[in-house]
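## Example record

The block below lists the input lines for one assembly entry, exactly as stored, with component labels intact.
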Amino acid sequence: MDVEFMQELGPGFNQASRRPPNEGPGESPEESNENKKKKTARVIVTDPSLDLESYIANYTGHTKVDRLLLIADRCPPLSIDAYKLALAELRTTLDFNRYAAVHSKLNTALVNAGQSPTPLDNNWVEKAKREYKDKTDRLERELKDYKVNLIKESIRMGHNDLGDHYYNGGDLSLALKSFMRTKDYCTFPKHVLDMNLNVAQVSLELGNFPHVTTYIIKAENALETSEDKIVTPGKLKCMGGLVNLESGKFKRAAKDFLEVSFALGSHFSKVISPNDIAIYGGLCALATFDRAELKSKVFDSADFRQFLELEPQIRELLQGFYHSKYSLCLNLLSKMKNDLYLDLWLHGHVDEIYRKIRKKALIQYFHPFLSVDLNKMAQAFGTPVSDLESELATLITGKEINARLDSHSKILRVRAADLRSTIFDKSLVMGTDYQTQVRHVLLRMKLVRADLIVKEQGHDRPDSRRYMTRGEAEVIGDPMAIDA
Amino acid sequence: MSVLFRHVMTFMELFDPSHVNVVPAKMGAFGEAVFNLARKAGSPNLAVRPLQIACVRWSAPDGANLTACHPLLCKASLLAKTPRAALIVIDRDISEINPSAFGIKYQHFLLYHYYGGMIYTGLRLYDRACQFFKLCITAPGPSVSAIQIEAYRKFILVSLLAHGVVPPLPKYTSPSVLRASKQQCKPYLEFAQAYESLSNARIETEFKNGEQAFQSHGNRGIALQCMQALTRRNVQQLTETYLTLSLEDIAKSVGLVEVAETERLILRMIEEGHVFAKISARDGGMVSFQDPPQRYTDVETTRRLHGEITQAMLLENQMLKMDRSIAVSKDFVAKVASGERGSAPPSAGLDDEMFDTAAWRE
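Predicted structure tokens for the full assembly:
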């Protein structure tokens, strides 16, 4: 279906080829939870227009590595560079397991490219291992001391430090546990907020989305007393948006991203960059908002306009759509598609979002007309007439367009609505439905009252055998055979 | 034999309902005996007439009561292949349940509605059949009867035939029935899912998968009918989507091989009034679909609406009466009183936070 879709969108779309998901190299455990939540087929991008260095400079921390690895995995031309950058980033942490895993992948990629593999820096790995263990021991010892002394604030700090340390070392589930343990030792609203924020962020990385939502809500409740009105709410909105995006609730995702204040800037670069907010928010809005909403929520939002300045392509796209320049839009979309396939959060949803946008474009195009010449419409969308026709047919079947196709003269016509008959139909059906429902319910109550209920009666179970043996049911089983 | 049945007839025509109500079990047994006798004699139609009269007279004057003879009549008329004979009884809705006067158990209720549904199915009155099956399926109770499962199977197929979709069961369906029906009716549910998608290939495979089950449950006939109705449903769908379409395209999209066959089908559908269209011989057969002529413009409509409204009001009154009778009933008052005296009900649901952390600590 997706292949068809790519063809529909015209040339420039067949650059991305599909491969069955099991063809890729073995995944390291860090990545496996990434792959579990994405059920879509892997898309291999061969000619990206992305500038890796400048793109990745927007991020820090784990998401930087995650993003690099995704690009390396999906985009062979960039894979060696991406692995190298990821290694450089990992060297600043203590996550030696992941370092080794990425390194072996780099070597595979190098061998595939016909270059000689690089040796693993064992010294660093050993050092990191030692350092990690020492620090763990030290922090745990400290925490024990704090617990003996029963100073709430110190215990909280101890747990927090340990959590940070685990997080830094890539041990997310332990980090999550540590952060959650701080809960009992929070004394100020600020602490509660920190705790919720930390838990939400780690859960997000772990892919435990329901958990993220719970903690976002909690954090938002704790927010009321906080003085920070920009960064933390922005972070929460971003995470909420990501969760909604991930679970395919594009409209809610769009709303979340649109509420992020531009002042968030790169404060949240360990999860999301301002450019991402523009892209995610813009695309989700385009896929789900109607024209009025686009205007009021997107173009009239001072904050989001600033975001859009960062991604002129998205701005053009939104405006093109708003001004009904659909072929421009579709061209832009097709240009962006490859890069979006390389995005950590978006890559699984690109096709779905594109489908929605295209559907909306078709509906919106037809909206002001009584009848439309399919040839002209096909031109505006850059698709062959026959494809357009079948696409429209599905829209009509799905009751998205109230129109009918004149296949002979290739015209799409609005269906003359016979409101009177419809209302008669509806009300008659409703009336009879109501009556039967009420009758059934009344009868049911009477059954219950008379204690005439289906229950097993000791000796003759299974109860129905006595009344309806299989044999009897078969003799008269097929009512179609009876009619004279 | 005929003498015996003459006597039976005489009794059925003359018995006094009020007397029978005192010994309903005897009357039920008698009905069963008549039925069995006729069946053993190889001519179940012998039992139809006496049972018919028994049902009508016993549940007189308004026919609102279910009697022990009702399911027997339905079964006899099914076996005798004279489904119309039962209509006089089953066309009246049951609205009273009185086990002590009419000797009924829950099996009677289930069987009556199951057989009734089958009769209506046979007579192509699918809506009514669905209602009967539904009544059987949604009968209250903690356990499940095999009759209910059979009814559910037929309900699925008949709904598909009538509407193309299977409506969800009402909320008050007992949970055990829901569970059992999910387990026992897998091929049916899968077939239904495929059917709702309207994709020919999927439906074919699901039909093949389920054919064995359909056959052994005696439902293959209805399933086959569903398959046949599919083409028509697809054509009807096309009328919603297209104004004109060539016969060739129609054949392609409804999955028929021959154009001539498609033409015949459409002609038949036009004649039956299912489709409003014209076929022009130009361009190798172009079908132009038209809007159905305006309906609801006659006196008949007003009359029908009026009737429906009166009916609805009657039911409303019945509801109110029932509501009132519950409100003043001893049990209800006692329950409300105890509720007021007792402490506030325990808070609903677990504290999710407790739940969360507990789960994480494990």
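The CA atoms of residues 5 and 293 of chain B lie 54 Å apart. The two ends of chain B are 78 Å apart (CA to CA).
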